[in-house]
Design a protein that fits this description.
Layout (H helix, E strand, L loop, with lengths): L3 H21 L26 H17 L5 E8 L6 H11 L1 E8 L7 H8 L20 H15 L6 E6 L3 H5 L7 E2 L5 H13 L3 E5 L6 H10 L5 E3 L16 H10 L3 E4 L8 E2 L4 E2 L13 H9 L4 E2 L12 H13 L6 H14 L4
Parallel strand pairs: 1-2, 3-5, 5-6, 6-7, 7-10
Antiparallel strand pairs: 3-4, 8-9
Length: 361
């Protein structure tokens, strides 16, 4: 049997899907809503991904939102639970809240091809993103997981790698469930960190790190950024400090120094609202907000205005909070509205597009 037969069939199916989607989109410029209500048993997009064909859909979707007077958002950092994901409902919700694209990273106990299913079912809304580096697979089987990630990034041409947890406190939801299993610490300058940074340098695929803000963790980060200057790093959750006693260095001045020293370091802007507290410390952990005057602190606004291309919109949807798209979108737009008008579209979608595809939109 010719092993290339299934590949050719998958490629033809993707082309037919894109053609039919284009025809249906004549009456729905942001893209057709998929009929599927589950990912289970769904088709898989052919690999390597036809990024140029997908980009035609994505551009059209973004332009439709702009033409309607809406600020499109590219969410650079979210993940999904296959069992909790309804593609039809999610497409409608994204349209409702003006979310143009989501870089949806699948969560799984092993490497999963679910990103291919998402793209096949809805080639208008999702950027192919590799499986997230989260428990239980990460960091327990981190070496094997990274080897598989490297193989798939190279062969399938994923434009983005998911979020890897190097220092992660228990989440507010886990604390509410009396769980602390996610209290993770992996040395960023250890073997797994070196393998990940090296992979990004070799492929130019950006990756995301969850790396809690602590003074003791900053020197290893700077050392890795210096050692791997071509690695494209997205540090998740700008200014999210959950224990002030552990962080005396980080602030707008420090982030400015990082940005001006390391040209391939980016920050995603997924963080809580002004009144959000981290349950374990009782502290307001989204430190970017000006809780007395409203909006965001002037020093942060000035920094983002000076370097808008280094800050990326993000929603941080997760497998246990798939139903929070509306809430997260409203919080993100509150932040975007507080930015200078010149920076707003860059942070919302233009910066993410340029980072992933090395072109303007």
């Amino acid at each position: 049997m010719n092993s290339r037969g299934p590949v050719k069939i998958s490629f033809l199916l993707l082309l037919v899907t894109l053609f039919l989607a284009g025809a249906l989109a004549e009456s729905n410029p942001p893209g057709p809503v998929p009929k599927a209500t589950t990912l289970v048993g769904g088709p898989m997009a052919a690999v390597p991904f036809e990024i140029e064909a997908l980009k035609r859909n994505w551009r059209r979707r973004i332009e439709a939102m702009r033409s309607a007077g809406e600020l499109p958002i590219i969410d650079i950092e979210s993940s999904f639970d296959v069992s909790a994901f309804d593609p039809s409902d999610y497409a409608r919700a994204m349209d409702q809240y003006g979310i143009a694209l989501i870089a949806f990273s699948p969560q799984g106990r092993i490497w999963t091809e679910s990103a291919r299913v998402v793209v096949a079912l809805d080639p208008w809304r999702y950027i192919p993103t590799t499986t997230a580096g989260v428990p239980p697979l990460w960091p327990k089987e981190g070496k094997e997981f990274l080897e598989k990630t490297a193989s798939q990034v190279r062969s399938d041409r994923y434009p983005l790698m998911g979020e890897f947890e190097f220092r992660h406190y228990p989440s507010p939801r886990q604390l509410a469930r009396n769980g602390a299993r996610r209290d993770i610490e992996v040395a960023l300058d250890g073997p797994l960190g070196h393998a990940l940074f090296r992979l990004s340098e070799e492929t130019l695929a950006p990756f995301q790190i969850h790396y809690e803000i602590e003074d003791r963790l900053l020197p290893p980060l700077e050392a890795m950024l210096k050692q791997y200057p071509k690695a494209r790093v997205i540090w998740s959750h700008l200014a999210q400090i959950r224990y002030r006693s552990r962080s005396k260095i980080y602030g707008p001045a420090y982030v400015r120094r990082l940005i001006e020293s390391f040209p391939n370091l980016y920050f995603d802007t997924a963080f809580g609202g002004p009144n959000s507290r981290y349950p374990a410390s009782g502290e307001f952990h989204a430190t970017i907000w000006d809780r007395s005057a409203g909006g965001i602190q002037k020093e942060w606004a000035r920094l983002i205005a000076d370097h808008p291309w280094r800050f990326l919109a993000a929603l941080d949807i997760g497998g246990d909070r798939m139903d929070r798209l509306g809430e997260q979108s409203q919080n993100l737009r509150r932040f975007l509205d507080a930015l200078p008008s010149s920076a707003r579209p860059i942070v919302a979608y233009k910066g993410g597009w340029r980072l992933l595809f090395n072109e303007e939109i």
